[in-house]
Structures are given as C-alpha cells and as structure tokens.
C-alpha cells in the first residue's frame, strides 16, 4: 500500500490551514511569506491526484479552494463556483433584457416639441 497520496494530502491540508490563517491574520503578512505558502500549495496541488478527499479539504479552506479553482480555470472554468447562483443570474439577466426590448422607448423630448 502506497502512503504517498495520504502524505501529500496531509501536506496540502497543512498548507491550506496556513494560507487560511494568513488570509485572516490581524497582523500584516509579508508578501514574500504569502507568496511562498501559495507557491508551495500550487506545487502540492500539481502533485496531488484528484481524489474524493480533495473536495472536503477545499470546502474547509476557501483560500486554498480559490487557488485550486484558479489553477483549474484554463480547462475547467470556475469548477468550484455554485452553478445554481450563476444560472439564476443568467436567467434574471435574460428576463431583464426581454422586458427592456418589449417596452417601447420613451418619446424623445425634441420629437415631442415638433
């Protein structure tokens, strides 16, 4: 039995915890420190095979989930964003456009004076 995936997942979770703490720190965090944690997390995500355990980890650490989603964006889009919210927004936009197109334009003041 190969323990490497579990070790990698543990390291990824530790980095996700650290990134979350840095994100919510009341004390200013240096850009180099923040960048270092993010880059280590990026490397761990690259080495980590997708697994069932990855979803709960990303659900628990929003900052790490955002990094993961940005890494996946070129081929998966916003893979962790709520589809229901996006679809609802699109439907509302279509309805607003349809209403705007169905309503006759208000008369122009210059045309009314004749």
Name the structural class: mainly alpha
DSSP summary, beta strand count = 0
> Roughly what is the average pLDDT, rounded to an integer?
80
Distance between the termini: 87 Å
The biggest beta sheet is recorded as: none
> What general form does the structure show?
elongated
Helix-strand topology string: HHHHHH
Count up the helices.
6
- In terms of DSSP E residues, the strand content is under 5%
Radius of gyration: 23 Å
Query: What level of helicity do the residues show?
Result: over 70%
Note poorly predicted spans: none
Describe the secondary-structure layout:
Blueprint: H1 4-23, H2 31-47, H3 54-60, H4 62-76, H5 83-102, H6 109-113
Helix pairs in contact: 1-2, 2-4, 3-4
Describe the model:
- The protein has 114 residues and is an all-alpha fold.
- It has 6 helices and no strands.
- The chain has helices spanning 4-23, 31-47, 54-60, 62-76, 83-102, 109-113.
- The longest helix has 20 residues, at 4-23.
- The mean pLDDT is 80.
Short description:
The protein is mainly alpha-helical. The chain has helices at residues 4-23, 31-47, 54-60, 62-76, 83-102, 109-113.
Question: Which structural traits does this protein have?
Answer:
114 residues; 6 helices
